[in-house]
Amino acid sequence: MHFLWKFLISSLFLTITKELQTVKIGALFFKDEYSLMEAFDSAITDINALDTELRFKVVKHFLAEDDSVILQNLACDLLEQGVLAIFGPSSKSSSDIVAVLCNQTGIPHLQFDWSSKAKEGDMRYYQFSINVAPTESTLSQALWEILRSTEYDWKSFTIVYEVESSSLSRFQHLLSWKPFHKNGLKMVKFRRGDDYRILWKVLSNMKEKFILLDCPPDILKEVVNISIYYNMTGGFNNLFLANLDTHASGLASLYSKKFTAKVTAIRLRRFIPPGQLGEFDIFHQEPEESIVLTKSQSLYDAVILYSKGLRTVIKSGSFRLPPKTKCGLQSWSVGEEIVKHIKQFKIQGGNITAFKTQKMFLSSTGLRDDFNLEIYNPLVERIVYIWNKGHGLVDYEKLQENSTQEEKRQKLSPRKEDFSLKRVRYTIATRMGEPYFMWRPEPEGVHYEGNERFEGYVVDLIYKLAEECKFDFIFEPVADNNYGSYDSLTDEWNGIIRQLIDNNAQLGICDLTITQARRSVVDFTVPFMQLGVSILYHKPKPPEKRLFAFLKPFSLDVWLCLLVALLLMALLLILMARLNPSEWQEQQIDDCLVIIENKWFLRNSLWLYIGSILELLPYVFARPFGGYLLY
Known about the structure:
The protein is 33% helix and 17% strand.
């Protein structure tokens, strides 16, 4: 009997404990979002399988269309069922009613993507909303820092974007960096279902070699494939893919020797779990990752992040279930604690479940403005750089990948040759003209082909450059044998300049004069030879400055005569003043003594003449008429 009571009490305790560990969470999906549902279910399964303290019970609601009224009713139903969090809906929904209701009731609201109309500043008004998707402003900063870095250094390029899926806020740093100009930044838009041949024809006519393409992954392969027919995939073309899901587009199937353009893409840095197998297991294949889209990975990470915040609150002892009341009538105080712990979460060692997108840091407003980006070549699946907010662009080869899975990936995956890095072959446009470029005389019975047909200074110079810089080349003399002149009537160039503009040649070399008009359409090196008539003259060395340089206007004899003349005139004035009775004045000293004195001395008489020369006002004047004449 005693044993039976113990068994009943233990069973009751386990039942109560199990009920306390099981919590409800809600999710809102559109009916066609199968990948999101799969990612959400996978996260719930992983948590329930690994976590011994927490069990999630999921309540899902589905939307057939974007209707704010239906969305409000579904969200209210979730709140009335007592869910502890709501995930979604995705950016297909144009309403923020879920964020408003969660903000009123204190229920955490977790989002996993950005809509083209969303504003990061709006998140400040929703204290219970958290978005684990990378912010558009940080992505914009990343694109700006990558393209302006010394590794890329894009000076002039065109942004090509799909209207419905692209957000221009992702390019805000680029738009403020470069001016809209034919030699700066250009923008071209297109729509899903358009004739993509027209798009690439426009870009081909623009002679654009640097293209930033923002295109949905499901049509990316089709769009890029059309560029092959317009000669936009050569070795001098650069294509930067700004969509974070490029790796899911199947673009690698376009890999070929003819596709030599430099293709670059970005994606969130994927988490590589630490190796747990021995070296003998290193060649064992692991199953492919089923969650590949950024939105699905972010949803998975949102569930994991919420579980960590909820577990922290449960361990603190302040957890209690929310009241089951009507929609928005009562607030749940524990929700604020959960959101606080989520925002303060920092990755530490020993996590039960890793994040799919690796680095997870949130700002005080619930935004993910710091993350790791992989910059890679999608044709050969080769990672080139890693970018984050703190360290900028870092060479991938300098990072330490201490992971068994990474080692297996490198050993099992055959490394494709990157044709964009192969030896470059330049077409060099030039013109016939001695002694620079001439036909090479053929001896009897000898026939030259290719570059052997030519000789001259230009030929010798290019051969030396090719040997030093490791490139191949072929000379192509222009048909009209012109240097390159602009015709204002047809708005066209001819000669060598025309071949460079049309990309029929990558280099031009001859005795070409650098003009402002030519510099506006092509780039010049510094002149390697100076020709023509020049005027040479010797510039005398300026004399050293001396203390008495002010005496230079006159010779020493003139200055001495001037001083003697001043002295004689001063003495003559004194003599006349002494002889003239009017210059003598009486001065009363006291009642008994009267002194007669003359005010003219050598000092004031000299000052009278010197002040006159310097146009200064003297303080004494001669009284008699003769003195005025002498003055």
